[in-house]
Amino acid sequence: MPDRTSATAAPAASPEALLEVTGLCRSFGDVRAVDDVSFVLPPGGSLGIVGESGSGKTTTARIIVGLERADSGTVRVRGQAHNGTGRGRAARLARARRVQMVFQDPYLSLDPRAPVRAVLAETLKLHFPGTDHDARIHELLDQVGLGARAADARPRELSGGQRQRVAIARALAVRPEVLVLDEAVAALDVSVQAQILNLLADIREETAVGYLFITHDLGVVRCVTDDVIVMRSGRIVEAGRTGEVLGRPAHPYTRLLSASVPRPGWDPRAIGAARRALAEEDAAAS
Ligand SMILES: Nc1ncnc2c1ncn2[C@@H]1O[C@H](COP(=O)(O)OP(=O)(O)OP(=O)(O)O)[C@@H](O)[C@H]1O
């Protein structure tokens, strides 16, 4: 089996990195939510973070966008420190221009009563005050496949997929370098999910924005990421090229995640076997 566990535990400092996370740690009481997490996202790359519920994916994402503080470790965007210092308004806006986040539920992140035009204008005014934003609003709607008519709709009048397009447009409004997508398609039905994933692939090609995809869905990871890290109990247990990690998982935990996905010819007993292998590995490690 390939050893993919040590390569990412301490990535070499890379002048080419778009996003570089090094030795990130965060505990809540006794819970080590994020435990020495390090990875590199290259410019225009797409990296998936997978793991079961509670493995530390969201806490990692929240630290990267500045919604949560780290106990230790660094986050750098194009070599510049992105966490820790600079809590003032200007520093917060500068951080937001570099890294934006799209959440699972656009209902919670969008004001349901504000027309889409106002949602986008608010973000544009905040980051680019004193300019006329009409043309940019139409450009953004076009970019996410919504017609100009959507500008006057309120989020509650839109479908789930359309709302998520608005949330993506709002994130793109500041021309971020990194987009963190936290279970961004999990609430959508599969056909709409596919449309949004296609849209995100097109946007990456057009803009060279880098993606950090937080998801528990290995199908999503397979579709839209180049590289993946697998988290368990706050730690990275495996990392590498997505096709290789999912095609030939090296760690018993990754094998368990993979065995848990129903597919043609799938035998649910594989889950039991994978669980036993993981328990054996845990026992040997303790
Ligand atoms: N604000 C908090 N206070 C206390 N514990 C927290 C807090 N945020 C996260 N945790 C704990 O940290 C661990 C990691 O949580 P996190 O949400 O990062 O995992 P996750 O992999 O994103 O899970 P999910 O897929 O369910 O969102 C969990 O044990 C969680 O209960």
UniProtKB/TrEMBL annotation:
Superkingdom of the source species: Bacteria
Segments crossing the lipid bilayer: none
Keyword annotations of the record: ATP-binding, Nucleotide-binding, Transport
GO biological process, any: transmembrane transport
Domain spans labelled ABC transporter: 19-258
UniProt-recorded Gene Ontology molecular function terms: ATP binding; ATP hydrolysis activity
Family: Belongs to the ABC transporter superfamily.
Name of the protein in question: ATP-binding cassette domain-containing protein
Natural source organism: Yinghuangia soli
